[in-house]
Amino acid sequence: MKLFKMKKMSLWSSLMVVWFLLIATSNLVESKCAFEAIFNFGDSNTDTGGFYAAFPSQGSPYGMTYFKKPVGRPTDGRVIVDFLAQALGLPFLSPYLQSIGSNYKHGANFATSASTVLLPQTSLFVSGVSPFSLEIQLRQMKEFKVKVDELQSKGNTNLPSPDIFGKSLYTFYIGQNDFTGNLARIGISGVKQYLPKVVSQITSTIKEIYGLGGRTFMVLNLAPIGCYPMFLVELPHESSDIDQFGCMISYNNAVVDYNNMLKEALTQTRKEFSDANVVYVDTHSVLLELFQHPTSHGLKYGTTACCGQGGGAYNFNQQVFCGNTKQINGQTLTATACKDPYNYVSWDGIHATEAANKLTTYAILNGSYFDPPFSLQKFCDIQPIG
């Protein structure tokens, strides 16, 4: 695979070269950005604390790398939308559901862990699926706009101006839970039956936000779930289904089929709105490369979880999740974190580490994984993300 259209260079090396060039360019002029806010829709991959604002429960070692404490992000540090905000010169996004300490002048994050695109047919307390599906997140967005229009004139300093919605970047990273939620029970063929509805809901959401004034949309595709430690442990498969990198072939192929469906749907949506940017972001390829060749990009471990229990190839125990302690068969088992999460792609078996999120964001900023071609540098002086 040709990365960033640069030959004989690793993803890490290519990203570093591009990044230094971006920093040098941005320092030549006063920092500016056409995007004054980010509005994000998603699940745990970009949750900045929404789920745990609604259902407080997160403990250590989450947040250990950057924040040095749990802050509602299901990883050791920052998620992709954090890095993206930093790169655009914006503060971290406050979760829409966080009532204390939030500031929405530069956008809001509607993402919550365990969210799906489609409305859930069960309760959080039965299946673990979040009630805040994409449709609910869209309703929250609409209500947010109503409140901005009503309250901004009264001098509320924590809200943006009413014209912000046409000056914002709208990001989507959601659908993984729709894909994986019933995968073990009904199989790939069963899941594929309702994936067109998932794609349709995403495109219809974009169309509704367009009606609210949105003009720039970035939709991240699904990650290669066949490489995640959790699914390698939980999903049924034969040894013949494992590729040379330790990932499940059939499940990853199914994700590619979904991603192609999403890409085509976004192409059709783009044709309807000639004055909008509807961008498909192939983060799948970036993460697949990290899982397959971690040592080529400054990491050490691909399909092994940093925070888990049991050691071995995956260090994942489906009975004891990261940070938890349980009595099992007379033994006290605790899923603890490694001391060097910066060497791992997988944080807890299902979420990426801050290190992997940072590399993925570098790829987004570079623009080589966009369809159609789209340059953030034309809109913003990209800032270092550290």
UniProtKB/TrEMBL annotation:
<dbReference type="InterPro" id="IPR001087">
    <property type="entry name" value="GDSL"/>
</dbReference>
<keyword id="KW-0732">Signal</keyword>
<keyword id="KW-0325">Glycoprotein</keyword>
<feature type="signal peptide">
    <location>
        <begin position="1"/>
        <end position="31"/>
    </location>
</feature>
<dbReference type="InterPro" id="IPR036514">
    <property type="entry name" value="SGNH_hydro_sf"/>
</dbReference>
<keyword id="KW-0378">Hydrolase</keyword>
<dbReference type="Pfam" id="PF00657">
    <property type="entry name" value="Lipase_GDSL"/>
</dbReference>
<dbReference type="GO" id="GO:0016788">
    <property type="term" value="F:hydrolase activity, acting on ester bonds"/>
</dbReference>
<protein>
    <submittedName>
        <fullName>Gdsl esteraselipase</fullName>
    </submittedName>
</protein>
<dbReference type="InterPro" id="IPR035669">
    <property type="entry name" value="SGNH_plant_lipase-like"/>
</dbReference>
<comment type="similarity">
    <text>Belongs to the 'GDSL' lipolytic enzyme family.</text>
</comment>
